[in-house]
Amino acid sequence: MNLLSNAALSVWFLAAGMISLASGAEPAGQFPLRNGDVWVMAGDSITAQHLHSNYFEAFCFARYPELTFAFRNSGVGGHTIPSTLARFDYDVAAWKPTVISVELGMNDAGRFSREEFLKNMNTWLERVKSVPARPVIFTPSAVNDGSLLATLAKGNRNVRLNEYSLDLKTLAEQEHLPFADQFHTLIDRWGKNTANLQIAELMGPAKAAAANNAIPGVEHLREFLKAQTPPAQAPVSLQGNPVHPGPCGQLMMAAVLLKGLGADGFVSSVALDAHGKNVTAKGCQVTNVNAEGNQVAFVRLDERLPFPVPADAAAVLPLTPEVLELSQYSLQLTGLPSGNYQVQLNEILVAAFTAEQLAHGVNLTPYAPGILPEPRNPLLIQSAAILKAVAAKESLVSQWRGISKSAAATGADPKLKGQLPGLQTRIEEADAAIRVAARPQKLIIQVLPAPETPAKK
Fold this sequence. Notes:
- Strands 2-1-3-4-5 form a 5-stranded parallel β-sheet.
- It is α/β, with parallel strands linked by helices.
- Helix 3 crosses helix 10 (about 245-260) and helix 3 packs across helix 13.
- It has 2 domains: about 1-265, Rossmann fold; about 265-450, no CATH class.
- Helices cover about 40% and strands about 20% of the residues.
């Protein structure tokens, strides 16, 4: 597979430009979700894992409650653009989608040149237009093998994925299509993290050896270890394997894709003073304000919810600033005397801040800095409920897809198609259950001085 010449690339991009996709154009920076949308997420095994796709969907239900929409996962392991096109009618178009995102390339990389991949993508866009639906393009994710973009070696699959991603970016710009580039955002972040994990694994035995006084010259090992500079960011396991990250890696993917598409990061904000005066609320209602003795309490009813972060992926937040950028759920309380304070939600202690931090403004998103790992945090409980409801809906979607595939086969029993409407109704009921799970609840917020820690004798 030879690299495309500039002339060949120009031919294919010219061909791409000839595809009229006016219905797919979105205003620059506007998140491509509209009222009434049915969004099908087409992809390969990484999509079929129902991790980052579920996190992406849960975010949308939390952030856009004023819209009515639905998501349908259409990922199949090992698939390429051509094999996804082969199932397009019964597994993608059958949902009557208004939005179709494509996240392919990992398996195409071993089969198709840049020229062939771009040709296949143009065929894909034509097919999406025929539904008709609005296309959204995601680059493939990177292979998490420790690679860095600047030092990619010939034969590494990331070389081809890099080329695909560059070509998809150009195509999306020419067609004015919503586009998110997770490959270039994450490859170096993942590569450095993997290198730091490998170093940490090597350092473990070295530190154990340094504690053994019986080893000749052990003092030199101790001096070596003292001289080592720890990484700026502690490494975190992305879980899974290099091609298929687990929850940690896929939370990163979901956040980067949402940020790349221009998702709204604002949830709500409350600002007031220690006397319970000068209350400013945006995106929420504040009632029953009471201030007494350096304690402030009020009831907060939000219009939206913070990013639903899965508990088994929270460890990766230090590597993923996009999550909190997409979850601006703030409280600002000025005029408190210096000291340490607790924040309680519905009488559950969830955070610890100084008066200075509160005066500057803090993020109450579960897992944000200052938030305590309290499993009874009502926001954390609601996040888990949203994610659980999304997973339950996708279980029904998978059943529907299996029947739809069987019904589309040559010589299939005609009765199979008769099973789909009833299952579709159950899926729509599950969509409604997600909306219920994502409905904001009133929170009693209390800020009070932290108990003094007894002095050590």
